[in-house]
Fold this protein.
Amino acid sequence: MAEGQRVGEVIEASTTDFVAQCYELYQSPPLGSLVKTRDEPVELYGIVYNATTASLEPGRRPIARGKDEASEEAIYRASPQLLKLLRSEFSALVVGHRQDDKWYHYLPPKPARIHGFVYLCPPEEVKEFSQSFGFLNILINTHLPVSTDELIAACLRQMSRVYEDRHTFLVVAGKELAILLSGQFNQLKAILERIKQ
Amino acid sequence: MSLDLTKIVSQVGGMVARLKAGSEERRNRLQQALTVLHNQAGELESLTRKIASSKTTWLVAGLVDGLDRRYEAPPLPAEFTILATDGSHIDVDRHKSTRCYLINIGAVNLHYGAQPSASLDSFPCLYSSDEDLVVTPAGVRGREQPVEGVLLGIKRSVEECHRLAELAAELPLGSSSLALIDGSLILWSLEAFPEFVAEALLDKGFLNYLDDIRKLNNGRRLALASYISFPRSTDVVNALRVALCPHEIVDTDRYCNACETRECDEVAGVRDRELFLNLLAEGERTALFISPSKIQKRYGRHRVYFFYLRVDDEIARVEVPQWVATDKELLNLVHSLVLDQCRRGLGYPVALSEAHEQAVVTASDREQFWQLVESSLVEENLPSLTSAKSQSKRTRWV
């Protein structure tokens, strides 16, 4: 399996999610993308549900600097240290793991390792992972700072991009959601509206 | 129990009232100082002679190119680099069983131009060997000076300069750069220590590294300066006091106690920064002056000169070694780049403020450092005794 693009490093981890710091400022993977990290022999898979860019030190907030600058880029040119004093982070919800080439769409036995590299999964891996929609259950039953509807829709949109026939993938996913959310019509409607092409 | 502020309120009120009452007199003295400054500017030669022959208990600035001259900031080069270091330390704690200290040097390299870049780093170093903990005179035992308190502060300044020289050595040929230090270039507190301490820390340390930086001017333009924000010095005002003294040869020990006219009191209490705030326009610098400190005799080609610089409503003191002061190009580089750094940093050089951020050791860092030391001692079954006083501060009880 291809390694994928290395996008960050785990700096905080729990059973249900992990936070990774990006190597480059503002280079966090898109909302809903599938990422992975490794704790041999287990590979943990997560869906990106939040991203932030803030000061490296909690006590030092950025201040407005551009009043006399012609462009936003000029602000960074005039203060090159800014790139070293800010950092971008993203959080991923753990939605499954893989061990000995077998996929498990439920939580792994242990959380991710701190300083574990985080990779953006390449298309063929996203395809393999999304052969089963078991992970949707975890997404539906979680409480996150972003709305679950937004996250599920973003995740399905991202996954559909690796399929030639995006429509069919989204229809199958929609049917799965209809079963899982049979009693919550409004939520189902909100998600479907966000994934229709 | 924390400080009882209610008991202080009336005392603060009294202090403010006293300051208010004296404000008019201070204004008059400042006005008088400005008048003397302008008058004496025409008598430079005689004033320079009078200063040279004077014996004073206070520091009097040596004159170089005038008294009330003002210089506009030269234009910035298209590409330039600012290097800066700053340090902080954890002092030896006599209540701990282990004698050691830590110096953390923050180092910053900011490059401006077509390809701006920045590197911010810190270099913590633990000192615990016998030769680190004391300064020993060559060949003689028994008079060694422990490196702690004031002496550790001096050692830290030496390490800041050391790191700055290492950073500067990496500068590419053909570059224009400024190496910046926070505070004074004059390690005047060494005057209180025996000769061999100044030899070890100043001659073989600080001045040695300044010389390394000077030599890098081969093929590149590299200036060095130190920056003192809101300076309290009165060196230039003291030169005016010498001018006002009616005696041909000023000798404070001989004449001052018996002096009844006290002409020099007309400008007493005025600081250099107040004087020049009324003289300089935004971005301008004063003439150069020579710092008169006694320790300067050791500085040789690094003899410290200084000028005052106006940035917004603040006057800063910028000190430079002789080899910068006497090279017009390097001196202009210091003027324009320090001013530019202040403007980018909301009034204070941005490189120094970032170097400080890299170096700073907080109270909780200190606590964690000592915990690390103690737990490492325990792991190796070494005794980790602390004094009862230290314990009582840590475990507070009623």
Notes: The mean pLDDT of chain A is 93. Helices of chain A lie at 72-78, 82-85, 123-129, 134-140, 148-160, 166-180, 185-195.
